[in-house]
Amino acid sequence: MSESEQQSGHVPDGHAAEPPLCVLLVDAAPTVAESLSAALDAVDRPVELVVERTTDDALDRLRSTELHCVVAGHDEGGVDGLSLLNTVRDTGYEVPFVLFPAAGSERLASRAISAGVTDYVSRSGEGSYADLAERVATLAGKSRPGAAIRGPEGAVREMYEVVSDRQRSFERKIDALLEVGQEVLGTDYATLSHVRGDEYVFEAVRAPDDTIEVGDTLPLSATSCERVVTTERTLVVEDIGTDPELSQRMGYTDWGISCYLGAPVFADEEVYGTFCFYDDTPRRREFAPWQVTVVDLMGRWVSYELERQRTKERLGALDDLNQVSREVTASVVEQSSREEIERTVCETLVDSEAYALAWVAEASVGGDATVRAAASGDGFLADAGDGSFEGVTVDTLADTGGDDPEPERLGPTDRALRTGEMVVVDDAYDRPGETAWRVRPREHEFRSVAAVPIRHDETLYAVLTVYAERPSAFSGEEGAVVRHLGEMVGHAIAATDRKRAQLRDEVVELEFRIEGLLSKYGVPPTDEPVRFDRVVSLDEDFLLFGGAPESERGTVEALVERTPQFEDLTVESRDGGGMRFQLHVSEASVFTTATALGGRLTAATVDDDALRLVVELPLNVDAKEVSRRVTEAAPSATVLAKRQTTRREPSAGGGRPAALDELTEKQRNALETAYRAGFFEWPRERTGESIASALEVSPPTFHQHLRIAQGKVFDTVFDERAGDGG
Q1: Domain boundary among 625, 652, 679
Q2: Which residue of 62, 68, 103, 553 sits 20 to 30 Å from the alpha carbon of 6, by its own alpha carbon?
């Protein structure tokens, strides 16, 4: 049993709730303990003094007690404080250590400094005890409770307790390991970093101030970690000022980082980052070999966990891709349109959380790519303005001044469009990218990209581009499944096109008569017919177009004013005493029911006080449901006729114009709204800005949709004429 004793120091006023500082005194003379205890009573901080008589007992105390400071005497025939100091430092304990020799000398002081002593006080009477007490209280007050008192066994034990705790998340385990490392090494700073190209990103931070925060970035070349990354080995530097190369870096010259111990972290057999500890003062002694081993073990565990997480993410992504495949198949069975299939693919990929952004683009005039469908998570497409992504043009030559670039300078989407082959980028930071919506990998944490051709036989429809926050997300089996997904979407589009061609001209026509339409709202009957001839579907409401004699302007205005669903009437007079009008319909009505369900309005005429309504429905739309909704909106409605017929829309071949089949819904809406609003008349009756406002999109988006729609229509018309010999 050790000859130890415990002497409680005085608790000053105002410090009763403050935990006492624990100070170990190692000295064989009882009078030293009594004098120091009395001196500690006078300091402005509660201190608990623990006394051991031998160095062996002192080392046992170090291993079992959280200490703030050690005071050791040095006396021939008594305690060898210098030997104890060497043992403490060699073992890796960084607790403040004060040597208090019975007879001091310059030689002893020099040897103590070399051994890593924190302070040195010569014993020269009662005054020296007061000086010692003040210094001890100051040093102990700055020491973190329990900091740096663990030896190798304790450090490894704490590491195991952290990593085996199933209740802690990965992030909490990282923070706990950083704290253990700080205490083992006695450093103020501890970080987990991630290297992105030439950038150094702080992913986890423990620091005494807020000068470093999670998410901060630095040039990798400014840090000592760069050497760890390039050599893929642990770096140990007790005094960076003595390293000719590291001492020239900004980390030392500007931030004062003076000692460093860091291990590489690996993922997918590449350096992910570093797990490192550093301080702004040089170390007096070398890092002990066991301390380096502890940091190595921490780095290896982090590497293992990152690899395990990525494997789990890959398996989850494969499950998600299988779900996407099932939904694409269901879309074909349900006779969905090409637009719905493309939208389903993008939305399902992003909803899976395995991917951050997905979009489908097709080649357009000028060599650019036009986005047909897109979906993203967490606001990645916030720069798209009004959120209308379809029709946005990707300037794929933006980074090359418009010249035809070399293949390696192209973005993945453009390369896939040009070559018809799948393009995979394992690290998007090192690749030029598309400029759509100013989407840039560095801004949005994208790590890998796959551009997958959507094709069937020799036809390349478009390219599906998928972004993931994981590096190398599309290598191995996941890449093969994504490639197969592109093929499946191509088959689905081809099947949909075949079905659409078969059903293109065959429709079901429903004719309704609704009595009392005007009198219901207190509007006088018409003297001449008022017709409603087209409905354009917007995101949440509709545009309704019509025409009437100028003499019925008052009737139209009164109907719009008194009908709750109608608003924002615009009237344009025409030559010959007629007028055209446009209005917003904010919710379902008899005019918009068929359009909302996939049909279209072909004729609607108000004559006297009755409405004659004719709608066309594709064969796959439930006519009974349309009838039910019309009668629900207008209880007086009666069905006059139901017949299967051909479309009323004329064309050179007698069926639906092929040019319109090439347009997306929003492109057709832009073209038809512009046409019916008089945008193509001379002089122009409506501006592009007013039409964009009616369509609830920005003017640039409207003009983008309109330009692409015009180009497709002209392409089809002129191609047909060339084929006919015209």
Answers
A1: 652
A2: 103
